[in-house]
Amino acid sequence: MTACTRNNVHIAGAGERAMMFAHGFGCDQNMWRYVAPAFEDSFRTILLDHVCAGGSDLSAYDPSKYGDLSGYADDVVEIGRELDLRNATFIGHSVSAMIGILASHKAPDLFENLVLVGPSPRYINDGDYTGGFTAEQIGELLDFLSENYMGWSAAMAPMIMGNPEQPELAEELTNSFCRTDPEIAKAFARVTFMSDNRADLAGVKTRTLILQCSEDIIAPFEVGDYVHRHIAGSKLVIMNATGHCPNLSAPAETVAAIRAFV
Q: What domain range includes position 139?
């Protein structure tokens, strides 16, 4: 099986340059439907589902390979090699921001631009580092998810999405969570929320844009600022958008920020 088949890759557009979109935890490539088409006139757009989500081949899920984010980064590199990508743009939302960074380390020729949407290298507070959550809070979150995944989805989606004036967005995120295989989702959640990729930031040589929402309980301002300060030459844009999913809640602003960068 090819990586493109395994990861349910869809390609559109006809540009000479390529732009790859990767989704966050509990989501799939459909979360980019308001953003990716805006670039099809000048880029070949590549959308994927991580092996845990959407239309990916769940039979390919290997707890050993996907026991940390490196396994997902290997998939990104494999897709890039199959499509013969060079100097592409990678756009990663949430946990995929770190997956993109790891992929850029593994294959430096693959991407010339990284766009990190709501990135967090570490969700847990550690000394003078503010990740947004205490270790106890993350432990409780993972316990709740493990014991009652559907209940966790219904409770967490509105908090993650924000924008209470658009309840349909929280409903969409809840439904997306609930379409994910619960056992795989539990494993991916643990990998996501327990990861520590702070040491990987300093080695980023790829031109990088960080999109930070003005209010985001999952990746607060302090986290975006930390990523900015630890990736040399990176650009930080503070968006008017709120919540953790500006690709859904503020697609026009998201498109405009990406377009100005690439």
A: 3-261
Query: What is the predicted pLDDT for the residue at 248?
Result: 92
Q: How many domains does the chain have?
A: 1
Q: What is the pLDDT of residues 98-108, one digit of tens each?
A: 999 999 999 99
DSSP codes joined into one string, 157-226: HHHHH--TT-HHHHHHHHHHHHHS-HHHHHHHHHHHHH-B-HHHHTT--SEEEEEEEEE-SSS-HHHHHH
Provide the b/e sequence for 182-205 (b: ≥16 CB within 10 Å).
Answer: bebbbbbbebbbebebbebbeebe
pLDDT given at position 159: 80
Average pLDDT score, the chain: 93
Distance CA(223)–CA(229), nearest Å, equals 10
Catalytic positions: 94, 216, 244
What pLDDT does residue 178 have? 62
What's the pLDDT score for residue 23?
95
Residue 113 CB partners (closer than 8 Å, separation 6+): 88, 89, 90, 206, 207, 208, 209, 261, 262
Q: What is the pLDDT of residue 14?
A: 85
Which CATH number covers residue 68? 3.40.50.1820
